[in-house]
Amino acid sequence: MQKNIDYQFDIKGVENDGTFTGYASVFDVVDSQNDNIVKGAFSRTLRKGAGNVKLLWQHKMDEPIGSFGIIREDAYGLFVQGRLLLDVQRSREAYALLKSGSINGMSIGYAVTKAEYDDYSDIRYIEEVDLFEISLVTFPANERAVVNSVKEADGLAAAIESVIRVLS
């Protein structure tokens, strides 16, 4: 069974070279699909090597926009460091949207390999997945999927230009 699921994407920074960091998945959060990914769910993928996990735009298999340098689990979720390929038009658009805060979600594409279903709560607890892609998305299923902060390295250049104009 293949499924896409949206989770919180907490950007810690976006650099001028298209590099960003954040969480592609957060553990113990019930999303709008009534799924809850539990800690350790990505271990299988990470053991096999996460080098094949693709960075896509809106889950479009024909729109890769970059690659990942780091994908790892910690106590909070699935931490990623990605880099947008700024030679690609869609990546430049994604970069601008990230910096502006217009895009604030990330979604994972995976196949469930182990899960338990709670009939009482109607929640599926996903214990193991094969992760194959992570996408930047506009509308994540997780309502808490928001960008908390974006560091813009080019903001310093703009500030310096303003000071020069005032001093001129």
Could you characterize the architecture of this molecule?
By secondary structure, this protein is α+β, with helices and mostly antiparallel strands. The termini are far apart. Strands 1, 2, 3, 4, 5, 6, 7, 8 and 9 form a 9-stranded mixed sheet that branches. The model is unreliable at 145-151 and 153-168 (pLDDT under 50). Helix content is 18%, strand content 45%. Strand 2 and strand 3 form a beta hairpin. It is built from 3 helices and 9 strands, in the order E-E-E-E-H-E-E-E-H-E-E-H. The longest helix is centred in the last third of the chain and has 13 residues, at 155-167. The protein has one domain (2-167). The protein is globular.
Task: Itemize the secondary structure elements and their pairings.
Elements lengths: L1 E7 L4 E2 L4 E8 L8 E3 L5 H6 L5 E4 L2 E14 L3 E8 L4 H12 L4 E14 L4 E15 L17 H13 L1
Parallel strand pairs: 4-9, 5-9
Antiparallel strand pairs: 1-8, 2-3, 3-7, 5-6, 6-7, 8-9
